[in-house]
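Researcher: I'm preparing a figure for a lab meeting and need a structural model of a single chain. I don't have an experimental structure, so a prediction will have to do for now. The sequence is pasted below. Please return the structure as tokens so I can convert it later.
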Amino acid sequence: MIISVLNQKGGVGKTTLSIHIASTIALAGYSVLLIDADVQRSALDWAATRDKEPLFNVVGIPSSNIHKEVKMLEPKYDYIIIDGPPRVYDVAKAVIAASDYVVIPVQPSPYDVWSAEEIVNLINEVKTTLAPYKKIDAGFVINRKIANSVIGRDVTEALGKYPFPVLEASIHQRVAFTETAAQGSSAIEEDPDSIAGKEIKALVEEILSKINSKIAAA
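Model: Understood. Here is the structure written out token by token.
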């Protein structure tokens, strides 16, 4: 099963979400591969800072052929998570074509709502060109939400005009995400019972339920 985290807008927290989704699934006992498809190599840099035994493998494939290369890797893993690039259209389209589910992180900002149309159009384009026979699902996740603010609700309502749902689980801006990243770790690995750990676990459970529902309906 291949899950990508993708948005054409930069700075929305794709790498942090990718690492935490991969960590959560790996901690549940599944074999996981995290693919860094961004030339900035943030996920690879994160892995390089880690002192402990890795929970999962991390490789870099910032290639417009990633949808073909992933086919050779897929049989070796239960889940493959792809940290997608911003603004690199050929690679982004290949990432979408490789995916079973696309997670679209959106910050609680009107700028993110406006830019969401770009990734929605890209997914729809791939569905009719690169992967016309594959069912690719997607969902928005409100990331870096500010506690006690109504703007997250406003963004959720604004995203309602797009064809993909907004996931119920959302991720707040928390120091734990930054602190654990500096150690090559994750909030859920360090403290699964923390608020940050519980938020990530809820998000992953919702994503996997969407994927399992799709499989059951196939």
